[in-house]
Design goal:
Layout: E1 4-11, E2 15-17, H1 24-27, H2 39-44, E3 46-52, H3 53-61, E4 72-76, E5 89-91, H4 94-102, E6 108-112, H5 115-123, E7 129-135, E8 143-144, E9 155-162, E10 168-174
Parallel strand pairs: 1-6, 1-7, 3-4, 3-6, 4-5
Antiparallel strand pairs: 2-8, 7-10, 9-10
Length: 181
């Protein structure tokens, strides 16, 4: 059974993007030495990437090449994607998507991008683990790591540690309603 995982960076005050949706604050940390927790190592263990439409649109506007050629990519959206940046499929029903992901046996699933989709999975008890890379930045506002929905969860700390340039890695498991499948 595939493990559904989050892997995301946030500012110290809990934002994943600035108020103007910019990630410039995060790009200032390009070259950050995360050692064995580096994004490339993480991505090598992922077979399926799931993202929301806002994340896809951000990647589509970005000039970088499509980074997910070795992964199955699913975009959660109700709108068609006319000219996709890379190979992908779309899904509109989150509950059906979760059921589809739960029976995968060919590798883990990464919830890429914003907190809104991750929160939808948390609300449905479908996120198994999350790695949060807390950057030593205060943004003062923007897109929150976890949008306020009223959901409460108690997570189990798997590992925490200081990394390069003041970054702190927090790795949690959802053992309550979210992790107790």
């Amino acid at each position: 059974m595939a493990k559904i995982r989050g892997y995301i960076a946030a500012s110290l005050d809990g934002f994943i993007a600035a108020a103007d949706d910019s990630l410039d604050w995060l790009f200032a940390y390009d070259g950050l030495d995360l050692g064995k927790h580096d994004y490339r190592h993480f991505l090598a263990g992922i077979r399926t990437v799931v993202m929301g439409r806002a994340t896809y649109d951000f990647l589509d506007r970005d000039g970088s090449p499509w980074a997910y050629g070795d992964q199955r990519v699913l975009v959660v959206t109700s709108r068609p994607i006319a000219d996709p940046k890379g190979p992908l499929e779309t899904r509109g029903d989150i509950d059906a998507l979760i059921a589809e992901l739960r029976v995968l046996g060919d590798g883990d699933v990464w919830m890429l991008g914003g907190g809104q989709l991750q929160m939808a999975f948390i609300e449905r008890g479908a996120l198994d683990e999350i790695e949060i890379y807390v950057m030593p930045e205060l943004l003062g506002g923007g897109k929150p790591l976890f949008p306020s929905t009223g959901v409460r969860e108690r997570l189990r700390l798997i590992e925490a540690g200081a990394l390069d340039r003041g970054c702190v890695r927090l790795h949690y498991a959802f053992d309550g309603p979210a992790g107790g499948k």
